[in-house]
Automatic annotation (TrEMBL), chains A, B:
The lineage of its organism: Eukaryota, Viridiplantae, Streptophyta, Embryophyta, Tracheophyta. One of its GO terms (biological process) is tetrahydrofolate biosynthetic process. This is GTP cyclohydrolase 1. It comes from the Eukaryota. Its EC number is 3.5.4.16. The keyword GTP-binding does not apply.
Length: 475, 475
């Protein structure tokens, strides 16, 4: 029997985790093919042509991303920790605590991501893990990260994730105690129907959860005080922690019980799409009838429907602006001296058509005008941005579409800069958490005048939409 | 023929890169075994017992880390980019530039790491890649990251890395131009022999390099101005760039031609260790006689020899301090009211004994004293830290050793916090770039008094030793 027939030939990665060789390929496996077929149904439900070149491989990309993002189901903690427990002297208890007896060890700021079990959209995690060694032994530091990752790479809820990491490390290391603190950020798009109304929309649902065992079992324990003292530097203070009771209410913005009904309101959900989303859960090895997953297919479909292909064109309704000419009362036409004007930090939300994953950030628009004021107003520009954002997109196209449209609104000389975080660069195999993407579109004078471009670009303040970066201020 | 006999059965990862199935296992492959044997020779040369439990699997871990960190040799850019070029409309050139024609695309802040070809120690990279699309097509954004990573995962020099990424993307995408900007940080340890003399030691050698093709070919081109305007937010300005001429001088602190001779000066290098390091290069698929690699084995061995097992014990030479008692002139003994004193941010440098990779950061020491001043001085504490740092270590042990020693110097009640960045958490399969590790050791009063611990921990200012974080201020 050759390799290709043997889907379960195991190879061992550095972490001692066994992965099937074929799984790493993924392509052609029945589960992958099933997800691909489901994604085709979803794309068709969005009114897309699945044979369009940009979408041709999207089903395969989505299937691989989902399967790679859920490899945790196949990983065993015992395999990860085994062979990474090392003898290490401690101090005599009468003297103090350090090393392999009682010396607190904390690994901070591990970047992880999970798929939200309520809506199937990835959420970001800053994970802090600590433990207190016992019995003159310590665990290799990287194993704390490996174990956390094995549980993150599943369909998850923040509190369950914290509990599972905690319990697994407790069993694997058998220490005096384990502490897990997770800062989770879930994208929270404005509703496509209501984006005009909600100009102060908060882009992230955030939750801070903890789980503790042993000396961390009691949330008032001194061990937690030490742990939080080490977290304080990161803007986290004890009173902000939603200790274990936050399981009561689902944090996902797509969950109706959260009091925020998020739905495309475009009519009853397409049963074919719901069935397709359900089959995706099954292909990932999940049980779609598990209590927490019952509403997931319809949440996911509702979300996707925000990006359906409407074929509407943006109607400019007489907003088209002429050149910046000014007619004096005597009939003389004068070209006014024009000044650079900007509308900065217009938020946008979109869906990557290659991976069906969100990307979002800000749009900056620069233009020349003699009037000194924006002739059409920030809110109209914001709706142009939303109009093109709420589609299956690529950032390059979004830049072009906004530049073209705004150019006809504002009179020809327009520059657009889009700065975005792409979920597809953070999750999947890439995991470039801090990365972000800038694209530029220029029309008219900006395309030939480097000084004009530079003047615009230098008017833009520093950019930070990273999910984790502003956690402390909005948690 | 079964799978196990076929070392070259290819599986395709998400990025289209073919990796041999067995390579992913690595264990047992001839190249891995050869590196393991070489690492045993190196450990013995350091005076270590290769059968000590903490070191037992070190040869295998080092071999896997090195091979995983150099998988780039086997990746083909064509395979990565193929299938990820998408048709995308642009604007008419007469109107402007956007989308698939001329709209600059920049992916910023990709975290990468490479092995320095001069000394075989990993260095960190913040990579910024841009290109100007041409011919109505764009490339999937993640491929810019994949291609950069394929060249980073080799033995590298910053300028060559920039050139290779640039040239590969240019050939793969055939755009109007490619721009690559790399911020590289190479650990620059103080010499074990001279750490007393160099209290202002800079922990990082840093270099900023760029490479451009097409519209970025000329470094004065307008395209570069646009690119740098987008970088400005990150503290990089044009005049800080060592444009292509920086190849003249090697940046690696271990290279004698840089004017900084870094050597353990512990006598002539052990020929067996040099031969072992040379065989590692060969096992990674490199040619040890390549010009840039000629000195690498001896640089690597010189570096390692800083951490040799000396079996010296730290001699306290009468520095042992008694209790904080004070004898009045009338002979009455009074226990003074003691206050918390701290010595913060003592730098340390060490070598992880599990992976033979550097870890480094700061040590904070808290103690109680009635005198109001440090009775032994910061420099002695700094040398205690260096004494225990310059060994094959684990952070937990380092905390214990420093706590124990300082406790005998400063009178019993001591708390030690070590905050560290571990190269082994950044490179290899983990790649948790922003992560850092805190360990605590407590002696005496601190082990029973949570308020004392908390008082100490809260006296410590925010921590940031990340290589990239302070690039702009020291470049």
């Amino acid at each position: 029997m050759g390799c290709l027939d043997d889907g379960h030939f195991g190879v061992e990665l550095d972490n001692g985790v066994k992965l099937s060789c074929i799984e790493l390929g993924l392509e052609g496996e029945p589960e992958t093919v099933a997800i691909e077929n489901a994604v085709k149904v979803l794309l068709q439900g969005l009114g897309e042509d699945v044979n369009r070149e940009g979408l041709l491989k999207t089903p395969l990309r989505v299937a691989k991303a989902l399967r790679q993002g859920t490899t945790g189901y196949k990983q065993k903690v015992k395999d990860i920790v085994q062979g990474a427990l090392f003898p290490e002297s401690g101090l005599d208890n009468a003297v103090g605590y350090a090393g392999g007896v009682g010396g607190l060890v904390v690994v901070r700021d591990l970047d992880l991501f999970s798929y939200c079990e309520t809506c199937l959209i990835p959420f970001q995690i800053k994970c802090h893990v600590g433990y207190v060694p016992r019995g003159q032994r310590v665990v290799g530091l990287s194993k704390l990260s490996r174990v956390a990752d094995a549980f993150a790479k599943r369909l998850q809820d923040p509190q369950r994730l914290a509990n599972e990491i905690c319990s697994a490390l407790d069993q694997g290391i058998k220490p005096a105690g384990v502490a897990v603190l997770l800062q989770c950020s879930h994208v929270r798009f404005p509703n496509v129907q209501s984006f005009f109304l909600d100009s102060n929309h908060q882009g992230w649902a955030k939750v801070l959860v903890s789980s503790g065992s042993g000396v961390f079992e009691n949330e008032k324990a001194d061990a937690w005080s030490d742990f939080f003292s080490l977290m304080r530097f990161r803007g986290i203070s004890l009173d902000k922690i939603h200790m274990r009771d936050c399981t009561e209410q689902c944090w996902c913005p797509f969950h109706s019980s959260s009091g925020e009904i998020f739905s495309s309101n475009i009519g009853p959900a397409n049963p074919g799409m719901i069935a397709a989303a359900t089959s995706i859960l099954r292909s990932l090895g999940e049980d779609p009838s598990r209590k927490e997953l019952i509403g997931t297919p319809s949440h996911f479909v509702d979300w996707l429907m925000n990006f359906q292909n409407t074929n509407f064109e943006m109607k400019l309704n007489g907003f088209v602006k002429g050149k910046n000419d000014y007619i004096r009362s005597n009939g003389e036409i004068i070209r006014n001296e024009e000044q650079l004007h900007t509308e900065l930090n217009l938020s946008f939300w979109s869906q990557c058509e290659h991976h069906l994953l969100p990307f979002h950030g800000v749009v900056h628009i620069g233009y020349f005008s003699a009037d000194g004021i924006d002739p059409i107003g920030r809110s109209l520009l914001q709706s142009v941005v939303h109009f093109y954002g709420f589609k299956l997109q690529v950032q390059e196209r979004l830049s072009r579409q906004i530049a073209q449209t705004v150019s006809s609104l504002l009179g020809g000389d327009v520059m657009v800069l889009i700065e975005a975080n792409h979920t597809c660069m953070i999750s999947r195999g890439i995991e470039k958490v801090g990365s972000n993407t800038a694209t530029i579109g220029v029309v008219g004078r900006f395309s030939t005048d480097p000084a004009a471009r530079s003047m615009f670009l230098e008017s833009i303040p520093n950019f930070a939409t990273s999910a984790g970066s502003d956690f402390s201020s909005t948690a």
